[in-house]
Structures are given as C-alpha cells and as structure tokens.
Amino acid sequence: MQDKGTFISPFYRPRCLAAAAPAGKAKLTHPGKAILAGGIAGGIEICITFPTEYVKTQLQLDEKANPPKYRGISDCVKQTVQGHGVKGLYRGLSSLLYGSIPKSAVRFGVFEFLSNHARDESGHLDSTRGLLCGLGAGVMEAVLVVCPMETVKVKFIHDQTSANPQYKGFFHGVREIVRSQGIRGTYQGLTATVLKQGSNQAIRFFVMTSLKNWYKGDNPNKAINPLLTGLFGAIAGAASVFGNTPLDVIKTRMQGLEAHKYKSTLDCAVKILRYEGVAAFYKGTVPRLGRVCLDVAIVFIIYEEVVKVLNKVWKTE
User: What terms describe the molecular function in GO for this protein (predicted)?
Assistant: First the structure.
C-alpha cells in the first residue's frame, strides 16, 4: 500500500516494465549460412552485371599510349556488339563467374564469423567494428579468391581483344598462364588487390552497418524491406567507388597482359601519374559506379533473403 506522504515522480516506471523495454538480443547469422547465401548471391549478381564490368575493364586497358580505341562507354559497347554481337559483352564471363561465387561466399562467411565475435552483450555491432570486420573479410577474399581469379579475367578479356587471341577458353587460359608464368602469374597485383578489396569491404560494411543500425534503432531484430536493403547497398557501393577507384585502376593494369611494364604496385602508380596524369586514376569511374551500385544492392538483397530462408530450414541455435 502506498504511503500518502510519498511523492512519486511522473518519470518513474516500475522495474518490471523497464526490464521489458529492450527488444532482445540480436540474432546472429551462422558462418555456414553466410557462406552458402553469399555464394548464391554472388553467382546471380555477376550474371546480371557483367556487361558493365566488361566495359569498365576495356576502358581501363585502353591506354592513351596506344592511341585510344574507344571514344567512351557507348562507343565501347557499339564496337563490341558490331564486332562480336551482344554475346561479346559477356566474353570472359566464365572466369568471373567461377570467381564470384567463392568470393562472395568467403566475404560473407568471414564477415559473419568476425562480427559474431565483435558484437557486444546484446548482439549489437557498432559502425567501427563493422568497418574492421569488413576489412578482414576483404583481405581474406582478396588473397584466397579475388587476386588469382581477377588476374585470369583481365588477361582473358585483354587476350580476346588482341589481333591473335591465344586462349581458347577459361581453363585453357589458366593452363597457359600457369605454364608460361607459374602460379605467380595468377597473383600479379596482389598488393593492389588486397588494398582494393580490403578498403572496398571496409567502406561497404561500415556504411551498411551504420544505415542498418540507424534504421533499426533500439530493436536489433527489426525486419528490413528488401528494397530498403537494396537502397542501403547502393549507397554503400557508391561510397566504395569514390573511395578506391584509383586502386581499382592500378590493380587492373597490374593484372593485364602488359603488367611486365611495371616493377611493382608503386611503380605502376608512379608511371600512370607521370605519363597519363591524375585523371587516368579515375578512368572507367562512370561504368564502375553503375555496376558497383547495382552489384552491391543485388548482392545484399539476395544474401539477406537467402539467409531468411536458411534460418527456417537450417536450425543452428
């Protein structure tokens, strides 16, 4: 019974209600689910966005020293279609597809593994830790998958546009590269690739983590509409493009058929700056911006939706 002389503040809430306020601990994603969902998302995404990747790579390889073969994005598309048909925009798809599936699998698997250990007691992952987990995921995908697969992809595309193509297909190309240059031939530009992928995923997961935390507020398990996930992904993708396009240009040059012109990643950067100017570091930015925004949006949408399905059929808790 309350004493009549006792004053009760209007801000007072019974302890039992205060305890019920938190929305609960955030649900964690098992790394195994992340690997499977990431692989599926990566495979679907690359089939949709490859033509823009092809155009971006062609423009970056079209060095000023040769005189330029293409006058821009539309001219590159026009010449490719006229010379090889629409399927010409998909030349080199196999090499990228074989890399995209394990790349996304490693990325999301490592990110979820690291983030599960970096979360606080309530399961919350702050933006800074999201950035560090993204950095770790990017470095791992660069070393295990991206560098060798991207090297083969760039060499394959460059070879197919030469006067006398020497690679008959993806596996034949890999055999020829390893036979003539050894395993080292598939790891050209490793430093640039690690820097690019590490910064890429650090920026993307930082932005995604920040936006998701903002949207969810005090409810860590609040559902996010797929379209909103796509919007967050597109913003994260755009941020990563403006943040590391120079590294992408250097990586592409280091992995091309003329990589022998450069002694190292630093030497490549210095020569581009000296002979082509600062603008060369942003060559292919427009097609890359369109591809990356669509790429990241699609990947995150598919990933999140596949995880939802896996949570229903694969119980890990």
Answer: antiporter activity; citrate secondary active transmembrane transporter activity
Side-chain-side CA neighbours of 16 within 13 Å: the count stands at 0
Torsion of CA 182, 186, 188, 193, to 10 degrees: -150
d(CA 138, CA 103): 9
7 falls in which pLDDT band (50, 70, 90)? Answer: low
| DSSP assigned state of 144 | I
Q: Residue 199, Cα to own-chain centre: how many angstroms?
A: 10
Q: How far apart are CA 130 and CA 219, in angstroms?
A: 18
Residue 11 has pLDDT above 60, yes or no: no
CA distance 289 to 255: 21
| Ramachandran sector of residue 89 (left: φ over 0; alpha: ψ -120 to 50; beta: rest) | alpha
User: What is the rounded distance in angstroms from the CA atom of residue 316 to the CA atom of residue 29?
Assistant: 9
The residue type of 121 is: E
Cα 98 to Cα 171: distance, rounded to the nearest angstrom: 11
Structure tokens at 164: 């006398």
| 302, two tokens | 């598919």
Judged on CB neighbours under 10 Å (0-12, 13-18, 19+), 307 is: buried
User: pLDDT tens, 37-56?
Assistant: 999 999 898 888 788 778 87
140 contacts 219 by C-beta, under 8 angstroms: no
Provide the 10 A C-beta neighbour count for residue 156. Answer: 24
CB of 90 within 8 A of CB of 54? Answer: yes
Helix axes 93-118, 285-313, angle to 10 degrees: 60
